[in-house]
Amino acid sequence: RAEQHPIVMAQDLARRCGAADEAFFREAMASPAAAETERESRRRLSYGTAGFRRKGSKLIGVAFRCGMLAAVRSIALQGRATGLVVTASHNPVEDNGVKLVDGDGGMLHMSWEKHAEAIVSAQNAVDLEQALLRILAKEEVNLMGGERAGTVLLALDTRPTGPRLVSAAMAGIRAAGAAVVGSEDTLRTTPQLHWQVLATNAGGPCEEKDYYDKLNRACSSLLLGQDAAVSSLVVDCANGVGALKLPSVLPAVTASGTAVTLANTGGGTLNSLCGADFVQKERRLPMCVGALAGGQLGASFDGDADRIVFFVGGSESGGSDLDLLDGDKILCLLAGHLKRCVEGLGGSFGPVAFGCIQTAYANGSSTRYLEQGLGLEVVKTKTGVKHLHAAALAFDLSVYFEANGHGTMLFSPDFLRRLREAKGSGSEWAGHLLEISNVVNPAIGDALSVLLLVLAVLSHEAGGLDTWRGLYADAPSRMLKCVVPDRSAIKTTNAEQRMTQPAALQAKVDDLVAGAELARAFVRPSGTEDVVRIYAEARTQEQADQLATSIEREVAAFFS
Predict the structure, then answer these.
(1) Any catalytic annotation for residue 89?
(2) Cα 70 from Cα 230, distance rounded (Å)
(3) In 3D, which of 41, 42, 20 has the Cα closest to residue 169?
(4) Catalytic annotation, pick one of 74, 89, 427, 449
């Protein structure tokens, strides 16, 4: 029949979306002038690791269009669920964002990021219809025999602008003919939504309670019979959604003998003077957290609980009230334990491809510890969790973290199968690794999951906190940014560690690095704004500062 022809069905879907779009903006905007301003503001938005992010009050049209795209992506995946979360992570409370979750529970596939930008930037209903038709054709979306019913899972964090944006996203999803799971009240951490999409499409238990049950069972098993390595744990919840969810994964921790105190649970301002980003960058205790004594461990989530950093009381000679245990230190702790587990499997288990994934921002001392101290393979990638995750998939077993505390472990399906077989033959090491895999969120970095993993690993490692904090000393470093008229003039290679263009500027950087002790440095363009980011390391803090400022002068001179 004519109405079942694929071109006709695609045109019908695009027309329905266009009509819904016109009606939505007519009702959502206070005046034609406001509508024009809103349209213009979407013209140059780019989709990055954080999705679309800006002031929450200016995201209503973005949320509606992203709901539409999430539905189309689900239809393109032949009905597999996708996700949409409204959050701005570690950013100030007045900001918000819309991030899409792909059918594998990971971030939106990079090939669809341009589609997201095209949908959001369309200036009217006709432009939107044309953009949709181009996407349907390029991705060869099969609508024959009736549209494949799509499903989109929704969630939001605690920001006040969130409910209105979720409501707009729901309207966009329904306009494209997909089902909505969730509402304006579906508060979740970002990693919980990623896990839920993954679990839904795997056909297993996928409710929030199932997430908690899985973590608690595995953590209880890992801590059974172990002495608590941490007598007292203080968790800074950044006044975010993590404060609502953390108590549900603490039973095994408290049963093992660790006393847990929660701080910044919602009485203050989200991410203000607290949270993982504040602690990592400022090297200061979060508000409402006092100085830590020996045996105490601190942890800070960010606003949507996908990042976590740890800290202990600062040494008297360090001149700080805390010693930071950031993503690099987390990676080294977990990698060392996994290496011992793999060695425990024995030669009869067969080879295991084990890799550690970092970005150029990882402190050089951590990379040297992994490569020289542990003898592990380290892969460097471009900045952004999506790049680390993609590189990690090449291994049987992998750990990736950014210094900011965002990361996780990955176990390949074949490696898990081999572990199950080995456990069936009596291998305790295989059973231990399987329990670790059950605490891991394989979709994305997850502060709740990583908190449990660190506590469990510390209980199995001799020396506990003191050994962990002493694995290596960070190389002194300095990060700067330089505003430039056109960041695209800088092209990089080797995981953004060297510039291919302009070659003369790279030569200047090389000369400056050669003049400092134990130095390295790189210059890379920002992915979101017209600035150039500069990172420098050296033997002393004075040398690192001098190297960074000298490079900043060279960058400014080049662009002037």
Answers:
(1) yes
(2) 43
(3) 20
(4) 89
